[in-house]
C-alpha cells in the first residue's frame, strides 16, 4: 500500500482516488484518525483532508495536506504538522498526481527536468531541445515533453511534424498505468531524442491523469525527461530550470515564479540591452546563478531548418549543466 488518505469528505476522497488510479498507486482510505493508525507509518504518502486537520497527528515524512482553497489557516496548520506541501485542488492536481506516482517509483527511475521561461519568448523551448540533444549525444535515453499546447510545437523544432507517432491528443483519455515499452515504441524520434508533442490542433488540454500516467512510464523508459513547460505551470519535477532574459521586465515577471518552497535553478540569457548583470538578477530573485549564455545568431535560421546546433554558447552551458541534473552523471 503506497498512499493513505484521511478525510471524511467523499468528494475529496473521490478526487484523490481518481489521481491515484491514474498513477496506479494502491491507496487506503480512512475517515477518522483512529482508522488510520494501522497505515499511518506504513504508507509512503499520507494525505490529510481539511476536515481532519485539527486533530492530533504524529509527525512523519511524506505528509501532504489537501485543501480546496489556499488559506493562511491551512498553511499554518500544515507547518505545525511538518507537512511537505499543501495541495490545493483542483489547481494542484498535476503536482499531486506526480507526487503519488513517485511514491511507488523505483529509486532507479529516470529524472524529470522542467524548463520554463520568465516570460513568453524567453527561449525555453530552444533551451529544452538543446539540453535533450546534448544528453542524447552522451548515449542517454531522452524524452522531450511538450507541455505547452499554444506553442509552435517541439515536433516542429526537430522537424518531426510530418512523422507518424503518438501525440498528446492520442493520450487524453489515458487512465492507469502505461507500459514504458509502449510509450517509447510509439513516439516519433530524431537524433536520439523521443518527442511527445501536440498535434496540429493545439487546443486540447492535458488531463492530470494522462500526464501522471505518461510521467510514470517515462521515468521507467528514459534516463532523462526534459519538459518544456509554459510559464507558471511546470509539473512536479526533480529539477526546474528558470530561464530569465537579462532585461528588467523579465526579472519582474520571474518574481512570481520563485515563491514556491522548491526553488528553481536560475539561468540568464544575454545580451543585456541595458547592461543588466546576471549577478544583479540573481540577487533580485534571491536565487543562485547556475549559468548564463548569450543568444547565438545561428539559432533563428537553424530553427527554420529544424537543425538546432549542438555547438555554441547554449550547447556548452547544457553540457556543463547535465551532470548536475542526473543522479549518475554520464
Automatic annotation (TrEMBL):
SUPFAM superfamilies: P-loop containing nucleoside triphosphate hydrolases (SSF52540). Signal peptide: none annotated. Residues 8-108 form the Rv3660c-like CheY-like N-terminal domain. Residues 113-155 form the CobQ/CobB/MinD/ParA nucleotide binding domain. Coiled coil: none annotated. It holds the Pfam family CbiA. This is Septum formation initiator. It comes from Actinocorallia aurantiaca.
Amino acid at each position: 500500500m503506497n498512499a493513505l488518505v484521511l478525510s471524511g469528505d467523499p468528494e475529496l476522497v473521490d478526487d484523490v482516488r481518481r489521481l491515484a488510479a491514474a498513477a496506479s498507486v494502491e491507496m487506503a482510505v480512512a475517515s477518522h484518525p483512529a482508522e488510520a493508525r494501522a497505515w499511518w507509518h506504513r504508507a509512503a504518502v499520507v494525505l490529510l483532508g481539511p476536515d481532519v486537520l485539527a486533530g492530533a497527528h504524529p509527525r512523519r515524512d511524506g505528509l501532504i495536506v489537501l485543501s480546496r482553497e489556499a488559506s493562511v489557516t491551512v498553511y499554518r496548520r500544515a507547518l505545525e504538522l511538518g507537512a511537505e506541501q499543501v495541495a490545493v485542488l483542483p489547481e494542484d492536481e498535476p503536482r499531486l498526481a506526480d507526487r503519488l506516482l513517485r511514491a511507488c517509483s523505483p529509486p532507479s527511475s529516470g529524472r524529470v527536468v522542467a524548463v520554463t521561461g520568465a516570460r513568453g519568448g524567453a527561449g525555453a523551448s530552444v533551451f529544452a531541445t538543446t539540453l535533450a540533444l546534448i544528453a542524447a549525444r552522451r548515449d542517454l535515453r531522452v524524452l522531450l515533453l511538450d507541455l505547452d499546447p499554444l506553442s509552435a510545437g517541439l515536433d516542429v523544432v526537430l522537424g518531426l511534424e510530418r512523422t507518424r507517432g503518438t501525440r498528446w491528443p492520442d493520450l487524453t483519455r489515458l487512465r492507469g498505468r502505461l507500459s514504458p515499452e509502449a510509450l517509447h515504441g510509439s513516439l516519433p524520434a530524431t537524433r536520439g531524442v523521443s518527442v511527445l508533442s501536440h498535434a496540429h490542433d493545439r487546443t486540447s488540454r492535458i488531463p492530470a491523469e494522462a500526464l501522471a500516467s505518461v510521467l510514470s512510464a517515462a521515468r521507467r523508459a528514459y534516463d532523462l525527461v526534459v519538459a518544456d513547460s509554459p510559464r507558471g505551470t511546470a509539473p512536479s519535477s526533480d529539477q526546474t530550470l528558470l530561464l530569465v532574459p537579462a532585461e528588467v521586465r523579465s526579472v519582474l515577471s520571474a518574481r512570481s515564479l520563485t515563491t514556491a518552497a522548491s526553488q528553481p535553478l536560475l539561468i540568464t540569457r544575454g545580451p543585456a540591452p541595458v547592461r543588466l548583470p546576471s549577478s544583479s538578477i540573481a540577487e533580485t530573485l534571491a536565487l543562485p546563478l547556475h549559468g548564463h549564455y548569450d543568444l547565438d545568431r545561428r539559432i533563428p535560421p537553424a530553427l527554420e531548418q529544424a537543425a538546432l546546433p549542438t555547438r555554441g554558447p547554449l550547447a556548452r552551458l547544457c553540457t556543463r549543466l547535465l551532470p548536475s541534473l542526473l543522479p549518475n552523471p554520464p
